[in-house]
């Protein structure tokens, strides 16, 4: 295939200085990006931000996966172009209505679809014409054109980048919303523990007054309605934070009333952020389903865009209602309380007794929003706003507005609610330990494992004394572990 004649120029007829220059620019940009990630990782490690450092490693894994996907698409571009199918197969589940064909044997339906969507013909990548001619000689059409493969792999890259950026913005917005909580934590730490030991009736506490106003059955319905609307304004008050903080401390670390709950909560949120920025297998499966449903005339995307928004409203209402249920459970006892009000965390408040399910739903919502926004801008740049694949302008704008509102609501209300309410279960997260205690526990566990292996390996009557000594050492290590737990920061 020689240069000129309107066809793509192969590498053998391209000047070497052009090839070297383009490769140099790509390599330089890649090295600069890699060095930036490396220095960012070192800075996070120096700042003892291990969860965020692990998040950065997760991002690198996603970039590696994207690179591998891009490589596969480029390598398989030629072979897939030579996969020939019957033209009738290309008539079903089209995102755009194809233009009328003049001849059954002279027009490639796949290329006509993209040409109609863009308002004109587009030049195929290198090898696209050969694949088309190869299939046309057989009276068939190629399964996927070279241009379609190229645009698909650009969309996947845009989707992954959009998902990461929007997730990061949402988490940073959520953390910013919790800044007031840090001031509340500081005031609680400065407060004398024994200063407020006066006896008060349960109905005198503002936390109870805000969330519970009677024992009538209709209050359950009113409580759900109040929880729905409260997520839009002041989702967590000072009284909410104080009550849930004390409930967590009394359940999991009662020996340390000065436990810094806010620091633990932020560390746990940073760990969860690592899960949110990743694209798991079920999200890839969701992407495939969304691509299949983009059929002309179905208008499925306008309804799908409402699903994450509705899920977000339901999740926010549920988290707010958990706070109400905590107050309801205490108020039912209807007795005087000495000192501060203590709530009782439990997994029973969560769906299927699984607090982790809330994070999964938030993860799905963020990915769906990223898909909507990435798909809109990708179509806008690739085909234009008036293209048929974009759909009706009113529908397209509505989908983007809903996705943006969902993103803002998640960062403003839902994520801060999750940050504190997710700890109202039976268990606590491993981020309750700071880095020093975590490293000490890991060393202790490794030593205990080695001693246990030694006991099993020397299981003989003559070694009973040594075995007893090792067991006493394990008991001492357990005592040291309890002492270390008491000084959690």
Short description:
This protein is mainly α and 489 residues long. It is built from 18 helices and 4 strands.
Give your account of this protein's structure:
This protein is mainly α and 489 residues long. It is built from 18 helices and four strands. The chain has helices at 16-46, 50-75, 77-81, 109-118, 128-136, 146-177, 179-190, 206-211, 218-230, 238-252, 261-277, 281-292, 300-304, 306-331, 356-382, 393-421, 435-457, 464-486, and strands at 84-85, 141-142, 199-201, 336-338.
What is the arithmetic mean of pLDDT? 75
Low-confidence stretches: 1-5, 102-129, 460-465, 478-489
Q: Which series of helices and strands comes N to C?
A: HHHEHHEHHEHHHHHHHEHHHH
Would you tell me the structural class of the helices and strands? mainly alpha
**What level of helicity do the residues show?**
55-70%
Share of β-strand residues:
under 5%
What about the largest sheet?
Answer: 2 strands, antiparallel
Q: Distance between termini?
A: 70 Å
- Going across the major beta sheet, what is the strand order? 1-2
Report Rg: 30 Å
Report the strand count.
4
Number of helices: 18
**Outline type:** globular
């Amino acid at each position: 295939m020689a240069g000129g004649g309107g066809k793509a120029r192969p590498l053998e007829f391209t000047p070497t200085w052009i090839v070297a220059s383009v490769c140099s620019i790509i390599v330089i940009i890649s090295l600069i990006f890699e060095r930036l990630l490396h220095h960012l990782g070192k800075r996070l490690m120096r700042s003892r931000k291990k969860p965020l450092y692990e998040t950065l490693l997760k991002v690198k894994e996603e970039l590696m996966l994207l690179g591998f996907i891009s490589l596969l698409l480029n390598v398989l571009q030629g072979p897939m172009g030579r996969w020939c199918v019957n033209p009738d197969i290309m008539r079903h589940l089209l995102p755009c209505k194809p233009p009328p064909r003049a001849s059954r044997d002279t027009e490639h339906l796949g290329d006509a679809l993209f040409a109609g969507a863009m308002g004109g013909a587009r030049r195929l990548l290198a090898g696209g014409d050969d694949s088309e001619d190869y299939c046309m000689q057989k009276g068939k059409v190629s399964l996927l054109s070279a241009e379609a493969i190229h645009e698909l792999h650009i969309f996947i890259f845009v989707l992954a980048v959009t998902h990461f950026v929007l997730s990061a913005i949402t988490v940073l917005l959520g953390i910013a919303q919790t800044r007031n909580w840090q001031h509340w934590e500081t005031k609680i730490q400065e407060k004398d523990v024994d200063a407020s030991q006066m006896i008060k009736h349960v109905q005198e506490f503002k936390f109870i007054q805000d969330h519970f106003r009677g024992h009538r059955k209709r209050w359950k319905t009113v409580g759900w309605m109040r929880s729905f609307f409260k997520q839009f304004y002041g989702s967590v008050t000072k009284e909410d934070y104080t009550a849930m903080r004390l409930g967590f401390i009394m359940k999991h670390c009662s020996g340390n009333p000065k436990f810094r709950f806010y620091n633990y909560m932020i560390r746990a949120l940073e760990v969860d952020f690592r899960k949110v920025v990743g694209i798991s297998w079920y999200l890839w499966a969701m992407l495939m389903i969304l691509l299949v449903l983009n059929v002309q005339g179905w208008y499925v995307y306008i309804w799908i865009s409402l699903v994450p928004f509705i899920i977000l409203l339901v999740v926010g209402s549920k988290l707010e209602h958990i706070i109400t249920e905590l107050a309801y459970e205490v108020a039912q006892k209807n007795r005087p309380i000495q000192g501060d009000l203590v709530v009782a965390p439990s997994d029973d408040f969560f769906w299927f007794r699984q607090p982790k399910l809330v994070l999964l739903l938030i993860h799905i919502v963020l990915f769906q929003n990223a898909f909507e926004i990435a798909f809109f801008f990708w179509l806008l740049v690739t085909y234009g706003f008036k293209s048929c694949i974009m759909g009706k302008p009113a529908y397209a704008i509505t989908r983007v507005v809903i996705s943006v509102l969902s993103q803002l609501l998640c960062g403003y209300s839902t994520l801060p609610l999750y940050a504190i309410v997710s700890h109202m279960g039976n268990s606590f997260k491993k981020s309750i330990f700071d880095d020093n205690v975590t490293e000490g526990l890991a060393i202790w566990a490794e030593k205990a494992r080695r001693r246990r292996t030694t006991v099993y390996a020397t299981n003989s009557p003559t070694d009973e004394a040594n075995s007893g000594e090792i067991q006493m050492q394990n008991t001492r290590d357990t005592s040291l572990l309890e002492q270390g737990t008491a000084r959690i920061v």
